[in-house]
Fold:
Amino acid sequence: MLKTIVSLIMAGALALFAAACTTGLEDGKANKPVSKVAQAHLEKLGTDQKAAMLVRIYKQENELEVWKQTRGGRYVRFKTYEICAWSGELGPKVSEGDRQAPEGFYTVTPGLMNPYSEYYLAFNLGFPNKFDKFHGRTGSNIMVHGDCSSAGCFAMTDDQISEIYALARETFKGGNRSFQVEVYPFKMTEANLEEQADSPNIEFWRNLKQGHDRFAANDSRPAQWDVCEGKYVFDADTSCAVGAGTPTGTAIAALNDNPPERPSTL
Structure:
């Protein structure tokens, strides 16, 4: 009898130890593999699931595009997903609580992936970025997530975010340190900009268009961005002299601070 009790205690202790050494997600939704159908489509495009990735979002058209880098270096569009819901109206996010989805260029690192999201799965855009901080914009936990419901984020269906999350996860497993997310108010055509000519955001949107158009000019490669004198600059534009309205020293360090690596529950 004593031997049986001791065995049960040891078995319980081992079970607790095993639970403490796992995340609980080894076989869960966060590790769902990229489907065979998706892998075959990637192969047909000349790329694979571990290749570098780019996400482009167009609010007005309710579209989220996933692009993958080919073996030749250029990017090809893998799929366009219909966004289930996004918050606010056309224009940038300005302050915490304005329930506005942001616009701009964002960098997603592994620490911004959230397998614990209350909205199925999610990744944090990293808002506010360097540009947003320069302009005093505030906010946090701006996500692309599932559950088809948004309060300042970009919401997808659970099936959509499952595939997008898996592609991002595999991108990191392929040795890529980050992927870029570009958020635009609409397709960045001259005609669309002309329709918005009276908007107070028109100069900001024309600045975004510069980065958008670099993609085509760079043979379908995303532009590398920075911030100079309160504007986005692209592909190592050196025309902005340090000091002319550009934060330097500790100010630059503060602007480059990353959001906390610990994921929220969003």
User: Anything to note?
Assistant: The two ends are 49 Å apart (CA to CA).
